[in-house]
Write a structure and sequence with these properties.
Helix content is 45%, strand content 18%. With 201 residues, the chain is of the alpha/beta class. The protein has a seven-stranded mixed β-sheet with strand order 4-3-2-1-5-6-7, sandwiched between helices. Helix 3 (55-63) packs parallel to helix 5 (92-101) and helix 4 (71-81) packs parallel to helix 9 (186-200). It starts with a strand and ends with a helix.
């Protein structure tokens, strides 16, 4: 099975797109910049509250987003070869229109908590370290796992897998985690997956 991150790998970073739409530069901060996910989300929720932005405002931006160039063709190619699972720290309320544009791959992610007025008041993780734990659970079923992602929150998933790599990771992550190979194109990533799938057959 191939386990992939979503944002920055298959679709643009949602919070960066929302930052550009609202003109709030602080919202550009993502898991590429902040290793502590809880700290990052508290920062985001505080900004949403201060600027009176609600879930519907974010969803309007997401509705106009498209997968990264080549991502749909890439996911189809992966699914022709083996099983594909998207492991993401995004939220169910964000992901549905993007999954439709990727032909509905299976997605495990988190959930936002909203108030009666649509304000985002919190979030619920599926579990702590959910990406890593999903890989461990799949391995407990005797699945062989290849994992790829681009951010701090993908490192544990990649290390827990049988094989994997970084994909279009920023320079700081490439430098600090130089023991994990990094590729920058879907063709390169598919070649690594091909080698993994062939090896495991």
């Amino acid at each position: 099975m191939v386990c992939l991150d979503l944002e920055g790998v298959l679709v643009p970073e949602i919070w960066i797109a929302f930052s550009e739409a609202t003109g709030i530069p602080e919202l550009r901060r993502t898991t590429r910049d902040e290793p502590d996910y809880d700290k990052l989300m508290r920062f985001r929720l505080d900004l949403l509250g201060k600027n009176k932005l609600k879930l519907a405002d974010i969803q309007r931006v997401i509705s106009g987003m498209e997968p990264l160039p080549g991502a749909l063709e890439f996911t189809r190619s992966v699914r022709e070869r083996t099983q594909l699972l998207i492991l993401s720290d995004t939220f169910e309320q964000f992901a549905k229109p993007l999954m439709a544009k990727l032909s509905y791959p299976t997605l495990l992610c988190n959930t936002l908590v909203t108030g009666p007025d649509g304000a985002v008041t919190g979030y619920r993780l599926r579990q702590q370290n959910g990406k890593r734990e999903a890989v461990r659970a799949l391995k407990s079923l005797n699945m062989e796992i290849f994992a790829a992602g681009d951010s701090f929150n993908d490192l544990a998933m990649i290390r827990a897998a049988d094989d994997g790599c970084l994909f279009r990771a920023p320079p700081a992550i490439r430098t600090d985690y130089a023991d994990i190979p990094c590729v920058d194109t879907f063709d390169e990533l598919l070649a690594k997956i091909d080698r993994f799938v062939t090896k495991e057959q």
